């Protein structure tokens, strides 16, 4: 009888200890769940784009933490760097090539050469192309990193087009093509500097850049120079009325008809 009582007491003790352990485990699970819910609420109240909390207090400590976390953290900088250089940069480069193709396909080269009394030559084509590429470069300069990459891709696409057209002119040796491409590169850099100076200055400075560059110092008609100034100013204004991101995303541009200037 005594032995049976001891066995019953041992079984009761075992069941009780198991219940206590289960209760402890349940409490631990509940505590973890509460902490997780608090963390989830914290994550909901945190704006990762702005780096600040949208709630003025934390539920657990009841401490004001608004604007307590800086925006430029190492994590946000690394995330932006990784996202841009591994993904977005190549998209903007592709869009730069598309922008060049669309912009040049919608240019009236023959009409511009005829109205401005330019000879129908390969060099005249290049002068017209570099003028419109420069106007796109001016607008993309306000596009930040995306604009910089698109400008590089835009100019790179232009030089590829120049090289392809140069080789189609006839049987020209490689050394001569390389020399001519180098001369065109010097001319392009000088033209960009002249156009920038004229755009930031007055019409007199822009007229000088036009006369020296696209008209090759052979134009004696001041009305043609004035007409080209109006054409450039109107196109620059049209591009300024379009947001940079719209230009980057659409890769399409509409040029003013030179006959209306």
Automatic annotation (TrEMBL):
Residue ranges of domain Ubiquinol-cytochrome c chaperone in the record: 115-250
GO cellular-component term (any): mitochondrion
One GO-annotated biological process of the protein: mitochondrial respiratory chain complex III assembly
Transmembrane feature ranges: none
A Pfam match: Ubiq_cyt_C_chap
Cross-referenced InterPro entries: Ubiq_cyt_c_chap (IPR021150), Ubiqinol_cyt_c_chaperone_CPB3 (IPR007129)
UniProt similarity note: Belongs to the CBP3 family.
Name recorded for this polypeptide: Ubiquinol-cytochrome c chaperone domain-containing protein
The organism of origin for this protein: Microctonus aethiopoides
